[in-house]
Each structure stands twice: as structure tokens, then as C-alpha cells.
Design goal:
Elements lengths: L1 E3 L5 H12 L15 E7 L18 H8 L3 E4 L1 H4 L8 E6 L11 E9 L20 E4 L1 H7 L7 E8 L9 E6 L3 E7 L9 E6 L8 E7 L2 E5 L8 E7 L2 E9 L7 E4 L6
Parallel strand pairs: 2-6, 3-5
Antiparallel strand pairs: 1-15, 2-7, 3-6, 4-5, 4-7, 8-9, 8-15, 9-12, 10-11, 10-13, 11-12, 13-14
């Protein structure tokens, strides 16, 4: 299934690449369910919880947020964002030890889709909520309201990493660039939610070896190679503890600026 992807400035991607490489990277092994950790949470953006504001630093567009993640998203502080490796990871969050917690302290599961940048002009205990080393989630408003009253502003939370359920089906691959340099946006990843490695080859060609992709920024991987578009593309994608092959997403005569979705996903 193919959908149109809005054009994204390559210059912006390269700028983000430079910026993100200056931040601490931490690609950690995925555990089916981690222990609860202490952190804090706020909310940001349009009250609907939808739109491009909720996915910029990772590479998600407004249509991706609406169709794949809805209002269950969060911008992650630097330690959780992990140089873009945190994009796509899922966290269960619950309000903890605050008079503003909703009755019963219900939890909500959100996907990391953005960066909450530091604000070095404010102290980390008074406005600089996303300053390292704080573990902070700046949530889409509807998700935050599941936890606490709007008037709270900021709340102490407990959070843990959990498996990602993706009811929208298989992995979605959005393509930019050209047949010699391909920028692949990897979305709707189930299981661990993040991608550790990606390789691509031409379909139906027994002599064609996989071309390894390097992590560019956020959810994007870049492939340097003359792939051409006369044949479909086969993607080998590795997430923590599992590797899958997506061979039914990108058909022959594929084009950039389009998103393709396969039937395969993790777990």
C-alpha cells in the first residue's frame, strides 16, 4: 500500500544529523518489560494531540502521527531520546505521588516520536524539565490528561519500557532521495519499536547482495548504492532480539516521496 509523503528538505536532515551526533547515544537491548523508573511528565502542542508538532525530531509527519500513533505520543528528554534511537520505543507511564493524579493512578502507553530539547536558561527543577540527566516525557495532551488534571502542568511519574502493539499492520517504509541515495523512514515498528540495523537489496535478483544502511537521524536510514527502480526492494530489518524481511512493501517502479507498507512486522 502506497501513500504520498510530503517533501522533506535534505538540508534539514543533514543539519539534524550533525546536531544529534553531538548528543549521547545509547542503543540498549530491548527487554519485554523493564522495571519501573522514576521520572516526570508534562504536555505540549495542540490540545488535539495530533499534527506535525508531535513528530518533528524523529521524522514523523502529521499524517504519520494521525494514522499510526494517534494521540499516544511523547517527546523524550535527551537520555530517553538516545540520539534518535529512542524514536518508536513504547513506554507505559503512570502518575505517582501527586495530588493531581487521576483516581486509581491509571497508566497510558505512549510512543516516543519527538525530542524534548534542553532549556539551559532554566534550572532543571524549575522549568528546565528536559535538561539532562532528567528522564522526562513531554506528552501529547490527551495522553497526559489520562494521568492527571491539566492544571497540574508537571507531575512525577513512573515509567517503563513495554512492547509496542501496532494494529495498523506491517512496517511502513517511506522513501526519499533517489535510486543512488535512498533515505528510508521506518515506521509502525512493533515489538521493541526501534530499529537497530537495516539493509536493502533488489527483489528477484539472486546475485544481488544486501546493501547495508547507516543510521541518518531519528527513524531514517540512508543507503548509498545504485539500486534502480525497475525491480522491487527487499528490506532486512533488525530490531532488538529479532530480524525480519519485508519483501512485499516496495514494488517495481517504486518512486521517492511515497510510503509503502508491507505485511510483516515484529512479534
Amino acid at each position: 500500500m502506497a501513500t504520498t509523503l510530503p517533501a522533506i528538505a535534505v538540508a534539514a536532515a543533514l543539519l539534524l544529523t550533525t546536531t544529534m551526533t553531538m548528543m549521547a547515544s545509547a542503543y540498549s537491548p530491548y527487554q519485554p518489560s523493564s522495571d519501573w523508573q522514576d521520572g516526570s511528565a508534562t504536555f505540549y502542542g495542540d490540545d488535539s494531540g495530533l499534527g506535525a508538532d508531535f513528530g518533528g525530531a524523529c521524522g514523523y509527519g502529521a499524517s504519520d502521527i494521525a494514522s499510526l500513533y494517534s494521540t499516544y505520543t511523547a517527546a523524550l528528554s535527551t537520555p530517553l531520546f538516545a540520539d534518535g534511537n529512542g524514536c518508536g520505543r513504547c513506554y507505559e507511564v503512570r502518575c505517582a505521588n501527586s495530588r493531581w493524579c487521576n483516581p486509581g493512578s491509571p497508566s497510558v502507553i505512549v510512543t516516543g516520536t519527538n525530542l524534548c530539547p534542553p532549556n539551559w536558561y532554566l534550572p532543571s527543577d524549575n522549568g528546565g524539565w528536559c535538561n539532562p540527566p532528567r528522564q522526562h516525557l513531554d506528552m501529547a495532551p490527551p495522553s497526559f490528561y489520562r494521568l492527571a488534571a491539566r492544571v497540574a502542568g508537571i507531575i512525577p511519574v513512573q515509567f517503563r519500557r513495554v512492547p509496542c502493539a501496532r494494529p495498523a499492520g506491517g512496517v511502513r517504509l517511506c522513501l526519499q532521495g533517489n535510486s543512488y541515495w535512498l533515505l528510508v523512514y521506518v515506521m509502525n515498528v512493533a515489538g521493541g519499536g526501534d530499529v537497530g540495523d537495516l539493509a536493502v537489496k533488489r527483489a528477484g535478483d539472486p546475485d544481488c547482495n544486501y546493501v547495508h544502511a547507516s543510521h541518518n537521524w531519528g527513524i531514517t536510514f540512508q543507503v548509498f548504492g545504485a539500486l534502480g527502480n525497475k525491480q522491487g526492494l527487499v528490506f532486512k530489518i533488525t530490531s532488538p532480539q529479532q530480524t525480519i524481511v519485508v519483501d512485499d512493501a516496495v514494488p517495481a517502479w517504486w518512486t521517492t516521496g511515497v510510503c509503502y507498507q508491507g505485511s510483516n512486522n515484529f512479534y
